[in-house]
Write a structure and sequence with these properties.
By secondary structure, this protein is mostly helical. The chain folds into 2 domains: 83 residues, lambda repressor-like DNA-binding domains (434 Repressor (Amino-terminal Domain)), CATH 1.10.260; 42 residues, no CATH class. The protein contains 9 helices and no strands. The protein starts with a helix and ends with a helix.
């Protein structure tokens, strides 16, 4: 890396640090969802911790902002520029945190669990098979009450 590239890298890093975490998370989430890659696939291909991928895709991880290098690595996998992740998308509504599943969402999940292939279900809800199994067990119990 020559001196000019190094200066550009520092400039982008500073811009990233000053960008609102909600913009970064919303954009990363959009690009990850468009890629159709499961969380586990992103984690394996980038060597970023699976838990980190979950935090990025989760609506209720309010205080989490992925560090610069993590975002850069994910952007590289998705073949997008990190500057795209830092730009506010006009008309993008920041997703409100989901604090709990309502009964309708739980019923839909249980129905999907019974009727969908596990990989399709995991892709739709951005879950691991183990988490999907736990949700199904808990939601089924809630529905029965």
């Amino acid at each position: 890396m020559d001196l000019q590239q190094q200066k550009e890298f520092i400039r982008i890093y500073k811009q990233y640090q000053n960008t609102d975490k909600d913009i970064i998370k919303a954009n990363l989430k959009i690009y990850m969802n468009e890629s159709d890659l499961l969380n586990i696939q992103i984690a394996e291909r980038t060597e970023v911790a699976l838990q980190t991928i979950y935090y990025i895709r989760k609506n209720n991880s309010n205080n989490y902002k992925p560090d610069f290098m993590t975002t850069l690595i994910i952007c590289d996998l998705l073949r997008i520029s990190i500057t795209e992740v830092m730009q506010s998308i006009p008309g993008l509504k920041m997703l409100k945190p989901i604090t709990k599943w309502d009964m309708t969402a739980k019923q839909e999940f249980v129905t999907d669990y019974e009727n969908m292939n596990i990989l399709e279900l995991c892709k739709k809800y951005h879950l691991t098979p183990r988490t999907a199994q736990e949700y199904n067990k808990n939601f089924s119990r809630d529905i029965e009450k």
